[in-house]
């Protein structure tokens, strides 16, 4: 954040009018204009802030700005309302001085805005915390509520405050807000019933009608249309830039934050609605027979709705609008009201109702925001009171408002102009008096207790007899005629007799801010502020608690016949209180100036500004400031602040403070005309000098800081050095100790080594001696042991020898005894005992053998090969014979179970075994295969019926065989049939007989020794069958075929025994050639099949795979 260091930096014109050169009205205005054109709306006159209304929002109220101005000197930054607020707040917090912010200026000059800015600044910089924030929020939110009910659009200002407001904000010792109290001054209630052209009623009416929900409006019996209500002026009902509907929501929200209950808000809105309804009640004249005019309500609908809203009886209100009861001490007199009186009564009720409602709101807000603790607190008062007003037609209200402004000007004069000048005199400063206009004389004209205008108005109002505004004006004319500031056509002062700008029914007052023409009409009435008792009683009767509170005088139990104090009297009293209050506080001024009459931004009307500058007395203000001194300070605090600027006063000055300051000033060579010595204070003429002092002080503080820093650094370095030194000694000590320790350790270990060597040598010597001794002892022991051993062994040998001898003696003795006994008994024993013992023994063994065999007999299966082990060798023969016999017996037993067929089968198998066993390898695999004979079921299968019938003998064997082709060795399937007489080969498919060989034609059959199924049928040479040569066939049932062939051949009566030739090479007669068929063992190829190949004319090779 860039921080401006001085008011003088980047200044447009001059920021402080005190510095203006040359000082004249023109240059003053020019400076304001110049600054205004550059958006610099704030300018100082010393500590007074002049604020020009920019009529547009400027970006100078941001939180950053707040931070910038926070805790800064007043003259440090460019002029701003925040600087004043900060100064006031800090002075309150730090110096315990109650403050007041006096904001003055014409209507529309920006007072209310300024007061809000001050409040928001203070809220932003003061303490934070939940409780504090709530208080702040309530204080800030009281504004929208009061503005809705108390502000209205006027020709000067779209948001003009129509009441005076003074708010005391209370703080605790820390500067945190505790609460507040609001005082309100004289609401301009005539606005409720009538508004000047181009103006509006109070905002709340428009806000309610545009912002409330349909539901709410229905409850309040209202219509959204403004034109339905007599009290609402229509020509400026809608204001540019004012969103009534949104504002209504803001107000509702604000009321909630401030602490209004929902039913309270409702009651308030009901009363607002009631005022609107009241305006719509109209009267019509009705002549009575006694000639007196009475009034009647025209249309009772509005009255009815209003009564419903307030819970009053219609008849009661109706009566109150028609009659007036005057109570004298004992009697009551009722008179009827004519139409004009009825309207008067209606409007009086509306005005009273509204202004009382407003006061109630202020009281209610105060209740919420009042400080919760009773602890002593500091106060900051913010006064935002209606500004000076000059309208086309000025009435009682303007008179009062302007009176109030006169009083404020008084305060200003008192505190800035007079007070200041008096201080110079008090302090004995040479001083030439500055002339300024003191408006005390005008205040006196208005408020003097004997002949002041207000006093005379009261007198008229209280006087019996007919009292009118004219009689009041007459009275003024007589009494005030001589007053310099009072002007009237009819006064005895002949000056104005010809002044046509002054109508007869008016009087004019020369206020400090200009002349104002007041119309006397209405003064008496407004001062009286009469409300017929019938009406207040009717209101009190209403079934509406808020209403009852607002009209306490309507309570019949508390009839008070005394007249209430007049409005003027009340106002004078409250203004008096306010002034006394302000005088106890430290004032801070904001003087608001309005740049033009059009509420427009960027327009600066010289004449208008000039007028305001004049009546606000700003020029005099500057002059007093300039002739006087910009700054003053008690000697003690001055010396305390600047004593470091001079060697003699620094650091201590022993003498009186004043002398110290003199020494200081002389030393600093401040020009003598720049300051004066008062009795207790020094007065500095120019802020420049002050800035000079402050700047020197700042530099000096920097130097001091450097000095302190230097000394501190020196001290720090030195202590650091000392510390280092100390630590160095410690380190050195430790190191030395460590080094010595190491050396000692080395010497110690060397000593130990030497020692150990010596000891070792000694020990070894000793050991040697000891060993020698030990060996001697051992040698002795060994020698003695050997000696003893020798002795012992000798003894042992002797003992053993002795024992042997004894044993030998015993044996010899026994033999001798045995011999003697046997010689004696031989003759009895030898005859038969030996044979008997032998027989008996053999018998016993045999018996045991046979009984044992019986128990361990093997099973009856002929293939069981087990047999018990032989027990004695002498039984070998018996054992083998028994085994053979048992086997034969069990085979016989087995055979005896066979049937005839089975027997035949076994016979066949037996024959096969005789032929092939151990001769052909194929045999082994055939043993387990039963011989089935007819594999083709030839007699049953219809396919072979023809073939069957062609063979007349019984078929012994039918099978499919392969006939080997003589040319290439390939096989062709043929049916092979064997009958008792012949062998038949037939086509497998057709069953046609291909060859039929009678058995006698077969000479021999040749087969190999291997596991193949090849066989050759050799035919008798010269027989009919042998024409085509021998047959080379192969079959899966070779063993069966050959066996059957052999058996059949053997049984046939006319054939010779069939030869069976088993060899791996045989000759076969193929037509004319003899071909050798040779069987070789080959590696298994194409599965396990046998392959046959014609090798050459003479050789046919059959390769049989080796069987595993
Ligand atoms: N500092 C400001 N910045 C912007 N606009 C301002 C400022 N002061 C005043 N105004 C404008 O001027 C109008 C009138 O100001 P207000 O404070 O209500 O006047 P007063 O209270 O003196 O009658 C405001 O509604 C606002 O539009
Ligand atoms: Mg205002």
From TrEMBL:
<keyword id="KW-0505">Motor protein</keyword>
<dbReference type="GO" id="GO:0051015">
    <property type="term" value="F:actin filament binding"/>
</dbReference>
<feature type="domain" description="TH1">
    <location>
        <begin position="920"/>
        <end position="1106"/>
    </location>
</feature>
<dbReference type="InterPro" id="IPR000048">
    <property type="entry name" value="IQ_motif_EF-hand-BS"/>
</dbReference>
<keyword id="KW-0009">Actin-binding</keyword>
<keyword id="KW-0067">ATP-binding</keyword>
<dbReference type="InterPro" id="IPR036961">
    <property type="entry name" value="Kinesin_motor_dom_sf"/>
</dbReference>
<dbReference type="GO" id="GO:0030048">
    <property type="term" value="P:actin filament-based movement"/>
</dbReference>
<keyword id="KW-0112">Calmodulin-binding</keyword>
<comment type="similarity">
    <text>Belongs to the TRAFAC class myosin-kinesin ATPase superfamily. Myosin family.</text>
</comment>
<dbReference type="GO" id="GO:0016459">
    <property type="term" value="C:myosin complex"/>
</dbReference>
<dbReference type="Pfam" id="PF00063">
    <property type="entry name" value="Myosin_head"/>
</dbReference>
<dbReference type="Pfam" id="PF00612">
    <property type="entry name" value="IQ"/>
</dbReference>
<dbReference type="GO" id="GO:0005903">
    <property type="term" value="C:brush border"/>
</dbReference>
<dbReference type="InterPro" id="IPR036072">
    <property type="entry name" value="MYSc_Myo1"/>
</dbReference>
<keyword id="KW-0597">Phosphoprotein</keyword>
<protein>
    <recommendedName>
        <fullName>Unconventional myosin-Ib</fullName>
    </recommendedName>
</protein>
<feature type="domain" description="Myosin motor">
    <location>
        <begin position="12"/>
        <end position="698"/>
    </location>
</feature>
<keyword id="KW-0547">Nucleotide-binding</keyword>
<keyword id="KW-0832">Ubl conjugation</keyword>
<dbReference type="GO" id="GO:0006897">
    <property type="term" value="P:endocytosis"/>
</dbReference>
<dbReference type="GO" id="GO:0005886">
    <property type="term" value="C:plasma membrane"/>
</dbReference>
<dbReference type="InterPro" id="IPR010926">
    <property type="entry name" value="Myosin_TH1"/>
</dbReference>
<dbReference type="GO" id="GO:0005516">
    <property type="term" value="F:calmodulin binding"/>
</dbReference>
<feature type="binding site">
    <location>
        <begin position="105"/>
        <end position="112"/>
    </location>
    <ligand>
        <name>ATP</name>
    </ligand>
</feature>
<dbReference type="GO" id="GO:0005524">
    <property type="term" value="F:ATP binding"/>
</dbReference>
<dbReference type="GO" id="GO:0005902">
    <property type="term" value="C:microvillus"/>
</dbReference>
<dbReference type="GO" id="GO:0005938">
    <property type="term" value="C:cell cortex"/>
</dbReference>
<dbReference type="InterPro" id="IPR027417">
    <property type="entry name" value="P-loop_NTPase"/>
</dbReference>
<keyword id="KW-0677">Repeat</keyword>
<feature type="region of interest" description="Actin-binding">
    <location>
        <begin position="575"/>
        <end position="597"/>
    </location>
</feature>
<dbReference type="InterPro" id="IPR001609">
    <property type="entry name" value="Myosin_head_motor_dom-like"/>
</dbReference>
<dbReference type="Pfam" id="PF06017">
    <property type="entry name" value="Myosin_TH1"/>
</dbReference>
<comment type="function">
    <text>Motor protein that may participate in process critical to neuronal development and function such as cell migration, neurite outgrowth and vesicular transport.</text>
</comment>
<dbReference type="GO" id="GO:0007015">
    <property type="term" value="P:actin filament organization"/>
</dbReference>
<keyword id="KW-1017">Isopeptide bond</keyword>
<dbReference type="GO" id="GO:0000146">
    <property type="term" value="F:microfilament motor activity"/>
</dbReference>
<keyword id="KW-0518">Myosin</keyword>
């Amino acid at each position: 954040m860039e921080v401006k260091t001085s008011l003088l930096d980047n200044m447009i014109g001059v920021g402080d009018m005190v510095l203006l050169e040359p000082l004249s009205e023109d240059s003053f205005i020019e400076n304001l204009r110049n600054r205004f054109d550059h958006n610099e709306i704030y300018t100082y006159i010393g500590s007074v802030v002049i604020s020009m209304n920019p009529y547009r929002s400027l970006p100078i109220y941001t939180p950053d700005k707040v931070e910038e101005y926070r805790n800064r000197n007043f003259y440090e930054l460019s002029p701003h309302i925040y600087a004043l607020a900060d100064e006031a707040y800090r002075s309150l917090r730090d110096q315990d001085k109650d403050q007041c912010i006096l904001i003055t200026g014409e209507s529309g000059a920006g007072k209310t805005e300024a007061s809000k800015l001050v409040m928001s600044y203070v809220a932003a910089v003061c303490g934070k915390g939940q409780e504090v924030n709530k208080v702040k929020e309530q204080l800030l939110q009281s504004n929208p509520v009061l503005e809705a009910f108390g502000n209205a659009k006027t020709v000067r200002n779209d948001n003009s405050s129509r009441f005076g407001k003074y708010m005391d904000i209370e703080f605790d010792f820390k500067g945190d807000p505790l609460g507040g109290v609001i005082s309100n001054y004289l609401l301009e209630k005539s606005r409720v019933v009538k508004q000047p052209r181009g103006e509006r009623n109070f905002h709340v009416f428009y806000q309610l009608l545009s912002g409330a929900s349909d539901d709410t409006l229905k409850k309040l019996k209202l219509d959204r249309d403004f034109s339905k209500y007599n009290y609402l002026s229509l020509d400026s009902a809608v204001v540019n830039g004012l969103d009534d509907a949104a504002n209504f929501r803001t107000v509702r929200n604000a009321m909630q934050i401030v602490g209004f209950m929902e039913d309270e808000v409702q009651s308030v809105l009901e009363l607002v609605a009631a005022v609107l309804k009241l305006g719509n009640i109209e009267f019509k004249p009705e002549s009575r027979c006694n000639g007196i005019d009475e009034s009647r309500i025209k249309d009772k609908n509005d009255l009815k709705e209003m009564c419903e809203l307030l819970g009053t009886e219609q008849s009661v209100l109706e009566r109150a609008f028609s009659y007036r009861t005057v109570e004298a001490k004992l009697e009551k007199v009722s008179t009827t009201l004519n139409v004009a009186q009825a309207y008067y009564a209606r409007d009086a009720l509306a005005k009273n109702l509204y202004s009382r409602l407003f006061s109630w709101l202020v009281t209610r807000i105060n209740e919420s925001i009042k400080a919760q603790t009773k602890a002593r607190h500091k106060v900051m008062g913010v006064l935002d009171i209606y500004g000076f007003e000059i309208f086309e037609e000025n009435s009682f209200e303007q008179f009062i408002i302007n009176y109030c402004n006169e009083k404020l000007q008084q305060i200003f004069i008192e505190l800035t102009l007079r007070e200041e000048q008096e201080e110079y005199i008090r302090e004995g400063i040479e001083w030439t008096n500055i002339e300024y206009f003191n408006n005390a004389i005008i205040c006196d004209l208005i408020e003097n207790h004997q002949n002041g205008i207000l006093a005379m108005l009261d007198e008229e109002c209280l006087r019996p007899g007919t009292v009118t505004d004219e009689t009041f004006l007459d009275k003024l004319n007589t009494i005030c005629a001589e007053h310099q500031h009072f002007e009237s056509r009819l006064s005895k002062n002949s000056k104005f007799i010809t002044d046509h700008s002054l109508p007869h029914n008016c009087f004019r007052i020369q206020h400090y801010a200009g002349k104002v023409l007041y119309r006397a009409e209405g003064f008496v009435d407004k001062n009286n502020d009469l409300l017929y008792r019938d009406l207040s009683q009717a209101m009190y009767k209403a079934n509406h608690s808020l209403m009852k509170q607002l009209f306490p005088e309507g309570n019949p139990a508390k009839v008070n016949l005394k007249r209430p104090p007049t409005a003027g009297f009340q106002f004078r009293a409250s203004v008096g209180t306010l002034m006394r209050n302000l005088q106890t506080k430290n004032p801070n001024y904001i003087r608001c100036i309005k740049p033009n009459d059009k509420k427009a931004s960027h327009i600066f009307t010289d004449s208008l500004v000039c007028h305001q500058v004049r009546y606000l007395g700003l020029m005099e203000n500057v002059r007093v400031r300039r002739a006087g001194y910009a700054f003053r300070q008690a000697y003690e605090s001055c010396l305390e602040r600047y004593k470091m600027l001079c060697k003699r006063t620094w650091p201590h000055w022993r003498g009186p403070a004043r002398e110290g300051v003199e020494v200081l000033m002389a030393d600093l060579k401040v020009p003598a005309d720049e300051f004066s010595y008062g009795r207790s204070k020094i007065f500095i003429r120019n802020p420049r000098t002050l800035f000079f002092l402050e700047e020197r002080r700042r530099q000096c503080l920097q130097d001091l800081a450097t000095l302190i820093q230097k000394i501190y650094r020196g001290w720090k370095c030195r202590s650091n050095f000392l510390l280092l030194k100390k630590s160095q000694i410690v380190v050195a000590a430790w190191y030395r100790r460590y080094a010595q320790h190491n050396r000692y350790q080395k010497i110690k270990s060397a000593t130990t080594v030497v020692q150990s060597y010596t000891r070792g040598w000694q020990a070894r010597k000793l050991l040697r001696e000891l060993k020698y001794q030990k060996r001697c002892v051992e040698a002795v022991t060994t020698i003695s042991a050997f000696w003893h051993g020798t002795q012992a062994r000798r003894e042992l040998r002797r003992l053993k020898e002795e024992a042997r001898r004894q044993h030998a003696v015993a044996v010899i003795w026994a033999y001798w005894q045995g011999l003697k006994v046997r010689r004696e008994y031989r003759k009895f024993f030898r005859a038969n005992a030996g044979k008997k013992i032998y027989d008996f023994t053999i018998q016993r063994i045999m018996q045991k053998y046979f009984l044992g065999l019986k128990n361990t007999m093997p099973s009856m299966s002929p293939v069981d090969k087990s047999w018990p082990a032989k027990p004695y060798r002498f039984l070998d023969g018996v054992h083998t014979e028994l085994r053979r016999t048992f086997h034969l017996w069990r085979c016989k037993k087995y055979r005896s179970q066979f049937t005839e067929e089975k027997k035949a089968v076994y016979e066949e198998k037996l024959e096969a075994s005789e032929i092939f066993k151990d001769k052909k390898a194929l045999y082994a695999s055939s043993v387990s295969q039963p011989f089935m004979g007819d594999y083709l079921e030839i007699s049953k299968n219809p396919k072979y019926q023809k073939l069957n019938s062609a063979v007349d003998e019984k078929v012994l064997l039918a099978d499919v065989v392969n006939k080997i082709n003589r040319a290439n060795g390939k096989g062709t399937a043929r049916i092979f049939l064997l009958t008792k007489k012949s062998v038949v080969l037939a086509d497998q498919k057709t069953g046609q007989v291909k060859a039929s060989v009678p058995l006698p034609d077969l000479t021999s059959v040749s087969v190999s020794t291997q596991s193949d199924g090849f066989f050759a049928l050799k035919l008798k040479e010269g027989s009919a069958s042998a024409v085509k040569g021998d047959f080379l066939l192969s079959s899966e049932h070779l063993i069966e075929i050959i066996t059957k062939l052999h058996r059949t051949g053997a049984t046939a009566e006319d054939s010779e025994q069939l030869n069976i030739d088993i060899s791996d090479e045989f000759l076969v007669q193929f037509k004319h050639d003899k071909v050798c068929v040779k069987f070789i063992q080959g590696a298994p190829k194409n599965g396990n099949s046998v392959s046959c190949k014609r090798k050459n004319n003479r050789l046919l090779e059959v390769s049989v795979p080796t069987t595993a």
